[in-house]
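Researcher: Quick test of sequence recovery. Tokens follow.
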């Protein structure tokens, strides 16, 4: 793996809106992963979903709710994540490192966020490992690992799905 992008104490940047099927065309897998994270962190969940293929497979293997560990389709992932910005206010990304792989269609991100849970004011501190596979300028597989215990402790019963 080669390092494509490394930033420290990154502030949230507003991503260019996806709003077209061609949003990721011409981008490397690492660049499309970066755009997807920027779009998500800018709280543009619709724009994030539009960076995904219509039949995208999204996996959260450690999700507390077994039913949400694997979602199939752009509509399903949008429905699952659409309320995220109303539940968790991500304020900054202290770490973000995106790596290219030997497979030009795959990239991996190691990143973290800091923010708060809106309903209870609890701090939200989370680290992620995200694996993305792209095809024809869109994300076809998105797999993300995070700590479900920290997630549930921060939410204290609040849900966004």
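Model:
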């Amino acid at each position: 793996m080669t390092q494509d992008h490394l930033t420290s104490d990154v502030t949230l940047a507003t991503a260019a809106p996806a709003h077209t099927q061609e949003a990721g065309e011409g981008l490397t897998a690492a660049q499309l992963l970066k755009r997807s994270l920027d779009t998500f962190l800018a709280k543009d969940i619709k724009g994030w979903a539009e960076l995904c293929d219509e039949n995208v497979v999204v996996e959260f293997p450690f999700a507390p709710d077994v039913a949400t560990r694997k979602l199939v389709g752009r509509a399903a992932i949008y429905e699952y994540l659409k309320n995220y910005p109303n539940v968790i206010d991500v304020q900054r990304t202290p770490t973000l490192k995106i790596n290219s792989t030997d497979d030009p269609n795959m990239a991996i991100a190691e990143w973290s966020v800091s923010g708060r849970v809106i309903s209870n004011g609890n701090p939200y501190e989370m680290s992620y490992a995200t694996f993305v596979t792209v095809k024809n300028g869109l994300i076809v597989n998105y797999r993300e690992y995070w700590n479900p215990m920290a997630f549930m402790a921060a939410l204290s019963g609040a849900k966004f799905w």
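The longest helix spans residues 29-41.
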